[in-house]
Write a structure and sequence with these properties.
The chain has 495 residues and is an alpha+beta fold. It contains 15 helices and 18 strands. Strands 6-10-11-18-17-16-15-14 form an eight-stranded mixed beta sheet, sandwiched between helices. The chain has a five-stranded mixed barrel with strand order 1-2-3-5-4. The structure holds one RNA strand of 75 nucleotides.
RNA sequence: GGGCCGUUAACUCAGGGGUAGAGUAUCUGCCUUUUAAGCAGAGAGUCGCUGGUUCGAUCCCAGCACGGCCUACCA
């Protein structure tokens, strides 16, 4: 570490030495506050400037602002609940203690004991009678007006961001409330929360490239899961009729404002139900969640309005293409016409792609981003839905939907494929695609097929991207705003 | 992966071919109800890194690193 004699950190290290020399412990344990700042405010907020409160209360927190007025000083102490002003006066503390208090720095964590009172301007404050330095801070905090806005520092040093930016703390709280709400919502309906493997020998359940790792003792390759789906369905086979998991998935793909290599998914499965039931459940779950979190079913995302009031429109993939005008009703059934249209649109397609794949390629390219929603798009082609049940009337499509809100896929659900013979065929098709170079194609999971051969009850399941849901409800434009420690390249030159 | 933009003090930002500026923060002094406290003074930067052009580069050029946005892949 480089040390110029006058660096801000060295100034504080010198103070630290002086504190120790004068017998003050700079990292003290054992102080227990009575109240958080918000509790102090609600308990004593009603006092008047004339009141002489004799109660002594203890608060703890970080010094965020210091105003020394000579023989008296004010400081702002921040804790998790907010902040409270404290008043330090020489004639209360005595000369020696007051001079020690003046050595406290912005950033230090302190415990303060004193009596609540109101200042001339009517602000509830704490007149300190004694204090203790709990943690000496050695680095200066970001500037008090503009705070910390450099996104790189905000993400890399999230602790700093949380310290100085209230909005960042609010996102954390909202995220926790959202997950808690979803957990209770499902638990209340008889769902059992489970945990399934993150490290898998055969990564399954989604079309995605997995991360690879290696188990030394077993001398074999393992994958980080791309989805929990196949394990949750094994639990349906085992007899649990409603299960869910809220946990991390890992996909070895690009990073963007919508994508982090690890992200959180809610997956839930319900036996004896269909994807229609999933749509109703999703409407109820997310619209009530919105009321809980933002206070209304309609709210702003960016500069546009979103309204989650049920029911939400339901259209098929083909209808969405027709509605958009990109294809007409003759073309949409004609594989070659669709292929030509894809080429015209510059959509990346392969000459061997099936009708279903081509339709989805065009959908992804031109329709998806325009689906402000909320809208359920259903009847996905069977070729791109290897785990979903075929539609009884049209075996070329599946009983699958994706929920779109604000041009983004929020959820993916389907009536599950329970036929082990069909499932084997679908897997084999995926294996052929993998052998042809598709690194995202599914692996064949022989044990999963064996489970289906024992018999899985008819069921529907859904995956819901938690990060994107949190983005929607906190009006965040980047997934990194809703993940505490988003993935970053290693920092160079760190001391 | 591709394109564009950015990187100057601890933070927020100006500046610009002749070796650097502001506010906040820090330090010193004054100040017993401030709250963007005030007043006076001071210190603080290898201008992201490495090369090139130039008498001279923080500035111009190239490469690299990191970040942002768009794009691609995906959820």
């Amino acid at each position: 570490m480089k040390r110029s004699p006058s660096s801000l950190k060295d100034v504080r290290l010198k103070k630290l030495e002086e504190l120790v020399e004068s017998g003050i412990q700079p990292y003290t344990t054992g102080f227990r506050p009575d109240l958080r700042s918000s509790e102090l405010k609600s308990k004593y907020g009603g006092i008047s400037e004339e009141d002489n409160v004799s109660d002594i209360v203890r608060i703890a927190g970080r010094i965020m602002a210091v105003r020394v007025l000579g023989k008296a000083s004010f400081m702002r102490i921040q804790d998790v609940a907010g902040d409270i002003q404290i008043y330090l006066a020489r004639d209360i503390l005595g000369v020696e203690t007051y001079n020690q208090a003046k050595k406290l720095d912005i950033g230090d964590i302190v415990g303060m004991s004193g009596s609540p009172f109101k200042t001339r301007t009517g602000e509830l404050s704490l007149a300190v009678q004694s204090f203790v330095l709990l943690t000496k801070s050695l680095r200066p905090l970001p500037e008090k007006w503009h705070g910390l806005s450099d996104v790189e520092i905000r993400y890399r040093q999230r602790y700093l961001d949380l310290m100085v930016n209230r909005s960042s703390r609010e996102v954390v709280v909202a995220r926790t409330q959202i997950i808690s709400y979803l957990r209770n919502f499902l638990t209340d309906r008889g769902f059992l929360e489970v945990e399934t493997p993150m490290m898998q020998t055969i990564p399954g359940g989604a079309t995605a490239r997995p991360f690879e790792t290696f188990h030394n003792a077993l001398n074999r390759q393992l994958y980080l899961r791309v989805a929990p789906e196949l394990y949750l369905k094994r639990l349906l086979v085992g007899g649990f009729d409603r299960v869910f998991e809220i946990n991390r998935n890992f996909r070895n793909e690009g990073i963007s404002t919508q994508h982090n290599p690890e992200f959180t998914m809610l997956e839930f499965y319900q036996a004896y139900s269909t994807y229609d039931d999933m749509m109703s459940l999703t409407e109820e779950m997310l619209s009530s969640l919105a009321i809980k979190i933002v206070g209304s079913q309609s709210f702003k995302y960016g500069d546009r309005d979103v309204d989650l009031t049920p029911p939400w429109p339901r259209i098929t993939v083909k209808e969405s293409l027709l509605n958009h005008g990109v294809l007409n009703s003759n073309e949409v059934e004609d594989r070659n016409a669709v292929f030509i249209k894809a080429l015209e649109l510059g959509v990346p397609v392969d000459k061997d792609d099936s009708l279903g794949k081509l339709l989805m390629a065009i959908f992804d390219e031109v329709v998806e981003g325009n689906l402000w929603g909320p809208v359920f798009v259903h009847h996905y082609p069977v070729e791109v839905s290897p785990l979903a049940r075929r539609n009884d009337d049209d075996p070329a499509v599946t009983d699958r939907f994706e929920l779109y809100v604000c041009g983004r896929e929020m959820a993916n659900a389907f009536t599950e494929l329970t036929d082990p013979v069909d499932q084997r065929n679908r897997f084999e098709e995926q294996v052929r695609a993998r052998q042809a170079g598709d690194e995202e194609a599914h692996f064949l999971d022989e044990d999963f097929l064996r489970a289906l051969e024992y018999g899985m009850p008819p069921a529907a399941g859904e995956g819901l991207g938690i990060d994107r849901l949190v983005m929607l409800l906190t009006n965040a434009q980047s997934i990194r705003e809703v993940i505490l420690f988003p993935h970053m390249r290693p920092e160079k030159g760190l001391e």
